[in-house]
Amino acid sequence: MAETFAPGASVSKVARRYDLNTNMLFTWRREMAGGKAHASESALKLIPATITAEVPAPALPAPTEMSGRMEIVLAGGDRVIVGADVDAAALARVVKALGRR
Questions:
Q1: Which of 3, 36, 38, 52 is spaced 20 to 30 Å from 30 by Cα?
Q2: Which pLDDT value is given to residue 40?
Q3: Is 39's pLDDT higher than 50?
Q4: Which CA distances in Å does 94 have to 16, 35, 66, 71, 101?
Q5: CB–CB of 44/35 below 8 Å?
Q6: What percent of the chain clears pLDDT 70, i.e. is strictly above it?
Q7: How far is the first Cα of the chain from the last one, in angstroms, to the nearest whole number?
Q8: Is 40 exposed, middle or buried (0-12, 13-18, 19+ CB in 10 A)?
Q9: Which ranges of the chain would DSSP assign to H, the alpha helix?
Q10: Per residue in 11-34, pLDDT tens?
Q11: Element (H, E) at 80
C-alpha cells in the first residue's frame, strides 16, 4: 500500500507488479485516506505482507515396481495382476475363463 502513496506512483502498475486487482488497491487507499473502518473495527488495520517467489513443488517419488498395475480378485479367490498396458480383450478372455472354473 505504501508504494501506491509514493509521489508519481501508478496504482495500476503497483497492482500488476504484485498480481493484485487494481480496484481493490483503490478501495484500500480510499479506506486508509478517509479513515473508514469496518463496522466491527474501530480503525482500519493492515498487516505487513511480503510476496516471494513461488516455491517449487517437491519432486514426485520414483515409480515403484507396482506402479501402473491392477489386481483383480475374483469371487472364487483367483487373483489376476495386470500392467497398465494390458490388452483389454485378452484380459476379458482370461477373467471369463477363470469364472467358468
A1: 52
A2: 45
A3: no
A4: 60, 76, 21, 13, 11
A5: yes
A6: 82
A7: 75
A8: exposed
A9: 2-5, 11-17, 22-34, 88-99
A10: 999 999 888 899 998 998 888 877
A11: strand 79-83
Answer whether 22's CB lies under 8 Å from 12's CB. Answer: yes
**Whole-angstrom distance, CA of residue 1 vs CA of residue 15:** 10
- Hey, what's the cell of 88? 483389454
In terms of pTM, does the model score above 0.70?
no
| Residue carrying the nine cell digits 487373483 | 79
Other CB atoms within 10 Å distance of the CB of residue 56: 6
Rounded to whole angstroms, how far apart are CA atoms 85 and 44?
Answer: 61
Q: What is the secondary structure of 4-31 as a DSSP string?
A: HHSTT--HHHHHHHTT--HHHHHHHHHH
Would residue 55 be called left, alpha or beta, if left means φ above 0 and alpha means ψ between -120 and 50 degrees? beta
Helix (H, G, I), strand (E, B) or coil at 48: coil
